[in-house]
Specification:
Length: 493
């Protein structure tokens, strides 16, 4: 992601991952290692903590669990992974939104109910968390954290409306939970010998299914199944993307395979509301959403941006790396050559941890260098994916001018951010968002750009839907709440 991430702190809450080996058990597949690879591929979605819960499939009461603060690679070394034995497991990597950055909030959450152990990992933020929390507490259930994810875990342990005869009916409990709250979640749930993948009825948060292939026998049947927030890690672990989990779908994974338990519809036949900012910012470019590659959507965003906001220049470039695909699209449409103008030093820590604005600015300066031969005397169009607080673009423009840039034109491959999210993305308050303080002309002057232009909301929607396989289906829709203030449902407390 671009340098703007540091000051704007657009943080996704987390990434979830699950894996189950095919029959026979005990398996030869190193399930824990597959989950580690999956979490490493999802590391961009959360870097505060990570955890894995494993089951050997024959014990209702015990899971092998390892959780901790920090990066996946630091928590799960070879020794830790070897201890995580099992035929199935789920994992989680986290940024905090509704709860603090503390070890007690690490996921997956594991509870021991009257019906056995249950592990839950969650991506998103419950729209009506306050009301659901009061309901759970009123049932006499204690909560040890302020995390939405623990709230989900405890809500699942509540008895569903229908009578259970032969033990817990977990699908019924999941459906009951989904009736209580429609937004926003993608969840992986593990009990003794099966995993459930669950996506909210609006499809706001992503979740997809992959087939784990044999690495030694290409024609052999699948060795297992994986479920993940993104498909970007599938190839690296020898898995093949199958499809997205549908909005409102409950998918059950067992050693025999997977099947749909049920699909819950949306109230009043409202359209889907997949987070459009997944395409703009959060997802890795090699992930597949809604039947298309994220990279291709970002490329088309640049094409539309060039059509909407062309300006004469000598080169097109980007703030590495999230603006690069859009910059290539802008270059293709405008016939202005692409050239790198910034070098990113990947060994500098994240600047948002610096304690004050001056140190953050110095952090930006040392994170990038200018490629002077491509800059000196040139009129430059610089593409970035978004601007939030507007405090880090200024130092970048100054760096380019000090390197001899004749003109610097900023083009942003998304519309202005004007509203908070409330569905799992930690966007600053409305008062902190620069688009609510300054006009485009004022912001251009503030950051030192010759001109500044954003992609329009309609232009972004066009880029997202143009190549979507089912683009004309009536239920297709995307959440643009952070751009337009139009939320899928009314926020309740």
């Amino acid at each position: 992601m671009s340098v703007e991430e540091d000051d704007r702190q657009l943080r996704h809450e987390c990434g979830v991952f699950g894996c189950i080996a095919s029959d026979p058990w005990p398996t030869d597949v190193d399930v824990a290692q597959v989950i580690c690879l999956g979490l490493l591929a999802l590391q961009h979605r959360g870097q505060e903590s990570a955890g894995i819960a494993m089951s050997e499939g024959d014990n209702h009461t015990h899971f092998n669990v390892k959780k901790g603060m920090g990066l996946v690679s630091n928590i799960f070394n070879d020794e830790a992974t070897k201890k995580l034995k099992g035929n199935l497991g789920i994992g989680h990597t986290r940024y905090s939104t509704s709860a603090g950055s503390e070890e007690v909030n690490c996921q997956p959450f594991v509870v021991h109910s009257a019906h056995g152990a249950l592990a839950v990992a969650h991506n998103g933020e419950l729209f009506n968390a306050g009301r659901l929390r009061r309901m759970v507490l009123a049932r006499g259930v204690g909560l040890s954290t302020h995390s939405d994810s623990e709230l989900i875990t405890q809500a699942l342990c509540l008895n569903p409306p229908d009578i259970e005869i032969d033990g817990p009916d977990w699908p019924a409990r999941i459906r009951h939970f989904m009736e209580l709250t429609k937004l926003s979640y993608s969840i992986v749930i593990m009990e003794k010998d099966r995993i459930f993948g669950v996506r909210d009825p609006y499809g706001n948060r992503p979740l997809c299914i992959g087939k784990l292939m044999s690495l030694t026998e290409p024609n052999k049947a699948e060795e297992g199944w994986v479920v993940s927030s993104e498909s970007c890690g599938f190839l690296s672990m020898g898995a093949k993307y199958v499809r997205d989990v549908y909005p409102g779908e409950i998918v059950e994974f067992t050693k025999e395979g997977f099947h749909t338990v049920s699909v819950m519809g949306r109230p009043h036949n409202r359209p889907q509301a997949f987070c459009i900012f997944e395409y703009v910012y959060f997802a890795r470019p090699d992930s597949i959403y809604e039947g298309q590659m994220v990279y291709s959507v970002r490329l088309r965003s640049g094409i539309v941006l060039a059509r909407e906001s062309f300006v004469e220049a000598d080169i097109v470039s980007s703030v590495p790396e999230s603006g690069t695909a859009a910059a290539h699209g802008f270059s293709m449409k405008s016939n202005i050559p692409f050239a790198e103008v910034l070098y990113k030093n990947r060994y500098v820590g994240r600047t948002f941890i610096q304690p004050n604005a001056r140190l953050r600015r110095l952090g930006v300066a040392k994170k990038f260098g200018a490629i002077v031969e491509n800059v000196a005397g040139k009129r430059i169009i610089l593409i970035d994916d978004s601007i939030v607080r507007g405090t880090t673009m200024g130092p970048i423009i100054k760096l380019l001018r000090d390197a001899g840039a004749k003109e610097v034109h900023i083009r942003v491959a998304s519309p202005p951010l004007k509203f908070t999210c409330n569905m799992g993305i930690n966007i600053p308050t409305k008062a902190e968002l620069i688009a609510n303080k300054l006009t485009i002309e004022q912001l251009a002057k503030h950051i030192g750009a010759d001109t500044l232009a954003y992609l329009s909301v309609e232009g972004l929607k066009e880029a997202v839907t143009e190549k979507m396989p089912n683009r004309n289906a009536v239920e297709v829709g995307h959440c643009t709440a952070c751009l337009t203030g139009e939320y899928p449902e009314e926020l309740t407390f």
